[in-house]
Amino acid sequence: MHWHTMSIEETLKELDVFVDQGLSTKEVKQRQQTYGKNVLEAKKGKSLFRKFIAQFADFMIVILICAAAISLIVSYMDGEPDYFDPIIILLIIILNATLGVMQETKAEKALEALKKLSAQTAHVLRDHKVSIINSTELVPGDIILLDTGCFVPADARLINSVNLKVEEASLTGESHPVDKNALVRLHPDTNLADRSNLVMATSSVTYGRGVAVITGTGMNTQVGHIAKLIMEDETPMTPLQKKLAKTGKVLGIAALIICIAIFIMGLMKNLPVFDMFMTSVSLAVAAIPEGLPAIVTIMLSLGVQRMARKNAVIRKLPAVETLGSATVICSDKTGTLTQNVMTVTQICSMYGKEKMTGDFGEFLLSHAALCNDALLQIDKNHVDIAGEPTEKALVMAAYHAGMNKLNLDSTYERIHEIPFDSTRKLMTTVHKSPDGTYRSITKGAYDYILPRCSNVYHNGKQVPLRRNEKNRINALNSTMTGSALRVIAVAYKNIPKGKNYDDTSLEDDLTFIGLIGMIDPPREEVKEAVRICKQAGIKPVMITGDHVLTATAIARELGILSSMSESITGEELSRLDHDELCNKIPGYRVFARVSPEHKVRIVKAFQSRGEVVAMTGDGVNDAPALKAADIGCAMGITGTDVAKNASDMILTDDNFATIVSAVKEGRGIYDNIKKAVHFLLSSNIGEILTIFVAILFSLPTPLVAVQLLWVNLVTDSLPAISLGVERTAKDIMQRKPVPPSKGMFADGLAFQILFEGILIGSLALTAFVIGYRYYDMPALLKSLTNQVDTNAMPGSYVPWVGRTMAFAVLGLSQLFHSFNMRSRRSLSEIGLFSNPKLVISFLICSFLQVTVISVPFLSRVFQVVPLNLRQWALVLLLSFTPIVVVELQKKFNAKKREMNS
């Protein structure tokens, strides 16, 4: 129903209500049965149990569960039940699931916040009398009374309005209260922000009063429509989630293939079936980096803490790295790119621009401050102004020019006033000077003041206003409005002492003083933030409900837009279908006068072109787009609860520039996660090759499952986490964003991981062969000839020393290798100790690795034996080798880059 197109009489007839009676109690009950309560529906969330179970849907987790089950069944069938390995694996799985549930504890609360925005009570006319009721009881057809300061409880068509101004910024993006007029009838295609005969739920009355008839309640309101959009839209997976999911599937499938291949190979070599099952399980454990999900979560959590210290609070952990992949930032204008404070930036006499602190400026601004209802309060040098934004700007400008409104009001007593009227577009006050003279001051819209002026203020005098001077003033006004300034004109009239004037004559035969231009100015730091975004390959885009002229002026000043052809209005946007919008959207930088539906369309159009979209906003109208975007960034100070709960990140200082720091941090975190994945996979490939090659050449199994778990979870975890706090590279904001389609293993990373895995595997296998050939075999021969006590080495047919040396080299070589992951630059350039956490992790993990080998109780658990000094020397020599090899590789690559540059 297009209520804005209907007259007051047609609206009342359609809703079957009389304006002087309201609905009866009986009619209200009937309509409540039809329309329900004036509340918003909530989307039923998942239970904790369902969230927990959902964590097990990951492919890697399924493989691990299978590995645990096989390990338990095989050991049980072999007559020696082994619960240690399965318990360790299951503990890892449960830990990962718990962390996943914790990430979702702050799940979608936007609808609850929308409910809180609803007014709690309303003044309603029912049964011929006005009463105060709970707003949830309202129904279409109710007559409500609106006054300054009250919230609008439902969507309604105005019946009567007196100087009514309504704040709708959270719904429409308007930066200042809008005038409402009950008497107008509008075209069906009128934009939401321009429907001046309607008021909408969750908006607030800032000035005047009115009477309205409710046309929509609950989910049938504009805010209810936004609620539906929030419920219908699902938040997309982040690029990291997609890549890790893909990596998990590849590793899981690879693990299954390896397990089957090894099992078949063992059967062909007539090895025991049960032994081959256990070997296959060991390989599955080696192939899958079980700790990766937990490690990534911890790394993201560390990043969250760092970002919180920089005023960016992350609500959903995976969203941290998404910023690093962002290619488009769609930003709301009001309060995000701008200060959300109307500010006087220019004043003009009939001759052009003037200084605010000069004689003319003081004269003009003092008159504007007198004809003004804003209240100035000064407390210990802290200035606060209460009132309508435009009037606040005028009073603040006068204050900065040295004129205190409190002193002006006490010196020039106000004795009469004509309040602002949206039809006249004027406000007039009459003041008595200390010398007993009287003066009326009129301020308002330029088009309504100049025709009433017969004189103009010039050098302290009033002189006749001629046609050429009017033309000059018209040109000045056009220039100011063309710069997106909101222009207020001020005029005065001296009133002879003792003569009475009626209200009409006070606003005739005026003396024009000048023009005052104001705007919601951009934040000072945003221009630099926009420049950095462009340098980083990120496209900044403005999406606002404000007028296109204002939006483009701000965008041009900030460097977002270079020509008007890069802007489009919501009305023009509505005429484009989805395919047309997707084709044309790369050419636009400013979207003005848009609705919530438009914002979602814009976000999805960018996404359809493969862009990773970050959306910033603060209002209810931003919530659906915040949720649909790859990452939604809400404002923490001015942001509504709806916007905050629909977002992935909250900027606590409401500063667009903070998002640049967040992008830099996100890129650094993504880099560090890649380093951790690189480190873990190269290490795991080394483990796989150690076992695979040993079986291939009919050697004893060099490592058992518990040893692989120890290496994967203990010696890998702390170094991997420490890589997560590696310093962000200085040039990171000079790089282009990582394309979402670009695999994690692109740019030769897969080859590098394979090479380093082969290196680590070769070193571990070398240690095993040395230990087995030179220590285990002689010991076995001696035991067979009874030259040693067989109890000294229980089960002497097991390669105890070789397995222990392989276990030690595998763990320690990975710890040394972690230093290689810090940067593609040499350790001599970045400094060996510049990441103290990694050094500490290395020392702790090395101590643990040595301890499980050297302490008898632990050595029995991990099926190893203590090593002598010569054996430890060999272990350290082999373990340090990755540092030497990779450093040589880095030097070679650096020279290659120099030659190519």
UniProtKB/TrEMBL annotation:
The chain crosses the membrane at residues 52-77, 83-102, 250-268, 280-302, 676-697, 703-725, 745-775, 797-817, 838-859, 871-888. SMART domains: Cation_ATPase_N (SM00831). Its EC number is 7.2.2.10. Residues 2-76 form the Cation-transporting P-type ATPase N-terminal domain. It is an enzyme of class 7 (translocase). It is found in: Membrane. SUPFAM superfamilies: Calcium ATPase, transduction domain A, Calcium ATPase, transmembrane domain M, HAD-like, Metal cation-transporting ATPase, ATP-binding domain N. Keywords: ATP-binding, Calcium, Calcium transport, Ion transport, Magnesium, Membrane, Nucleotide-binding, Translocase, Transmembrane, Transmembrane helix, Transport. The keyword Cytoplasm does not apply. It is a multi-pass membrane protein. It catalyses: Ca(2+)(in) + ATP + H2O = Ca(2+)(out) + ADP + phosphate + H(+). CDD domains: P-type_ATPase_Ca_prok (cd02089). Belongs to the cation transport ATPase (P-type) (TC 3.A.3) family. Type IIA subfamily. This is P-type Ca(2+) transporter. It comes from Mobilitalea sibirica.
